[in-house]
Amino acid sequence: MTKIIIIGGGISGLSSYLFLHKHLLSSPSHANYDIRIYDSYDITASIISGLHNGTSEPTTDVEQDSSKKSSISPTTIGGAIGISKNGLNVLSRLGDTESSIHNPLTQTISRGHPIQSWDINTARGFKLASIKTTGSDTKHEDNDGDITTVSSSDTSTMVMIARQVFVEILYDQFKHVAPTMDILQHKRVVDVVVGDEVTPNIVKFEDGSQEEADLVIGADGLRSVLRKAIFESHKPVNCQDHEGSGWARSWVEWLSSFGKVKRQDENKVKCDYVTPHYE
Q1: pLDDT attached to residue 52
Q2: Where do the segments described as Disordered lie (predicted)?
């Protein structure tokens, strides 16, 4: 049996499971696959009021304090997300096209906010850019040679939606297709031992337990445990080997020949794929 572990039960983790379910678990050989999701937060315990099932009942302070450490919130997953056309195309392949209830695309459009333009402003209110998200007009020529213009200005190709709501949509689809709910478990992964052709991958948890897996999918965000395990288990990569002979590097070499610029030793410049960078 092939065992697959997905680290992270957010947007990427749930989407990965839905794709694997569609292409592996729905096949005649589905019994040969065991897929599990582990997330450090309990995504089933929402502390955001008025989002799930369209209700508007506020949550009490006691309920928020008791669950904020283990559930998802804007602090842990962000406030909103913009899903462009390529993302909407992915959603269209995740669910049941014959059902609007179990169709993530239909649910995202109905519970989100389709937009026709996206303005990017500075903190002081100055507009930097205005991005049109609607489709462009197309021209069609009939058999008589007459050309008609079809306007698609009202067709939006981007949807803005609260991240919490979007996670709930994917989670509802997960509940619809998952054979058992213990597939998604609230356990924090602290380390991954990367295997090879002979030894399996080993996923280690905060409680001291560990599991072996044939495939480990990292969907655990910016500070990914799996990414850290992969890149720290290999020899550091020289960043300048990837940069090649760009114009900036050529200028540095030319200036260094006149003693104007002191260039670092290439052996000391290493790529850091582990530490989060925000620039």
Answers
A1: 46
A2: 53-74
